[in-house]
Amino acid sequence: MNDPDFDKRLGARVRTERKSRGWSLDALAERASVSRAMIHKVENGDSSPTANLLGKLSGAFGLSISTLMARAESGQGRLLRQSDQSVWVDPETGYRRRHVSPRSDLPLDLVEVTLPSDASVPMPASAYAFLRQLIWVLEGELVFVEGNTRHVLAAGDCLELGQPIHCEFINETGVDCRYVITALRTA
Q: What is the tens place of the pLDDT at every residue in 86-105?
């Protein structure tokens, strides 16, 4: 389960990002292709966003999900202990995301993901428009679909993502899949 305090900080960060751009709720809703009401709930901390919604919001802002979430976290130094790493769980799928890398000026983020058995998480192309990414599977099996291309990754496999396109993370097995996403910010 998500930390309600983090959900409130994340909502406040979404509001800050929106207002810093001079956007109304309607403008963000149009750019992200989500409802105004949902953005309002997220900004007020009344709803924990799904992974797909975070992808749409961060893409509209021109940020990675990792950057948006890191900006919602409290200050960190160069060392980020596991006990201090933020964990966020998609309320819809149980997708568990742990931000491993400390907040820094490096254009790199490390994120550990646990995708529950029989779960699927779609992500819009806008969430990847300004990133280069690698997916490294640590445990289990991950099906990664980019556009019309289907990749089946086993433990130890590493995939470089191609050009930004709608994609989906799928676990078709009966056991959790754990993988690391390395995201290099290019913008």
A: 888 999 999 999 989 887 76
Residue 16: closest CA among 43, 39, 45: 43
What is the set of domains in the chain, with CATH numbers? 4-72 (1.10.260.40), 82-185 (2.60.120.10)
DSSP state string for 100-127: -SPS-SSSEEEEEEEE-TT-EEEE-GGG
- Closest by CA to 76, choosing from 67, 85, 64, 88, is 85
Answer yes or no: is pLDDT of 3 > 80.
Answer: no
pLDDT value at position 122?
94
Average pLDDT value for residue range 125-142: 90
